[in-house]
Fold:
Amino acid sequence: MLAVENERFVTERPQSAARLEQAQRTMPRGVPMSWMDDLYEHPPVWVTHGEGAYFWDVDGHRYLDLYVADMSAFCGHGPAPVVAAVTERIQRGNQFLQPGEDAIPLAEHMAERYGMPKWQYTLSATQANIEVIRIARHLTGREVVLVFDGKYHGHLDPTLVVLENGDVQPEYLGLPRGAEARTRVVPFNDPAALERALAPRDVAVVLTEPALTNAGLLLPRPDFHDVLRELTSRTGTLLAIDETHTLVTAYAGLARAWGLEPDLLTLGKSIAAGVPLGAYGMTDEVARALAGPEESNVVSGEAVQEVATGGTVFANALSLAAGRAAMTRVLTPDAFARTARLGGRLAAGLRAAIDRHGVPWSVVQEGSHAYYAFQPEPPVDGAGSRRADDPDLRALVRVYMANRGVWESGWWLGPTVSVAHTDADLDVYLGVFDEFLADVLALTD
Structure:
């Protein structure tokens, strides 16, 4: 069935196939960024435009988007307030390497919204996490970073490691030798393992999502975050919460919704409606680490007593204009109330279809985001998520849906309702999901 659906996908998209062949002459793998070739088993589609909850490819296919570009398009495609803000900003200049008129209103809004008093901006959450780790290492005098198995915090050396037979190994090629020695990986939802890992008091920072989102949707056990905060405080370890994905589930993120008290908080993806912008908030105590040096760096090649942060196009006027418009005019309390309602309806519809067809799957949901696991009980850690997964089955789900006009999530992320989705859109998605289960089960009869 997977072979048939993949063949149909390619056959019905000749213009995308032609573009891919042409692109291979000038771009490795025929794409401008390697993930566009990695995300799915089928070839990439070449997109012409998007509007609201839909986007179109060069072959004229329209897709109902439940992947929302790995949550970076949570505002929907082409949200009017952001379009107006960036249009005006680009006309008036977008890059000055000086603060502009959107900087103060955006920082004040984020301080009030997320409860972190001080803010800095990058172009992505990956870069925000890099700077958070550097700040933590400076403040603690330690080098080790602790993450949880099943995490993803961007493509940065300290977190691109995995557990292999109990040992920490580089996750990809091209990482420096020995990078894994400065990272510790422990199971999510395992307080005892966490306590053992922090006991040497050599960990600078624990970096985690409130709920892990790149291994399905792994929700914390009721007391896990309390234990995490107590252990990090006791061992002199900073706690950084990465809300890059989970910010779509609650107006002020899960850290604020669940009453968590991190030292640093990172954001990205959807905070500027997909326009490149990353951000990190911090307590006043942490912010003191970013005080300027007594002597500025006036000549390259001299050591400077300052934490390594910043970039030429970080906090540029265009990104901050997009961020201000998205955060204050699109990602509003009303928008989150509506997406949470739709997310609940999405999860209920998935469960109803699963029950109707008698498959032993489970569904987890938080706000606008849902995930279905191929086992009766949802996984609670990364190892359990890998055991429950079936990559070929998941590939079949998404190519089947794509061939019927629904763009399902890549890998194991699960569907996400955006600000632009409607009840009618969910009817379409759930109808195709139900059709998929019926067709798959017909093969086993």
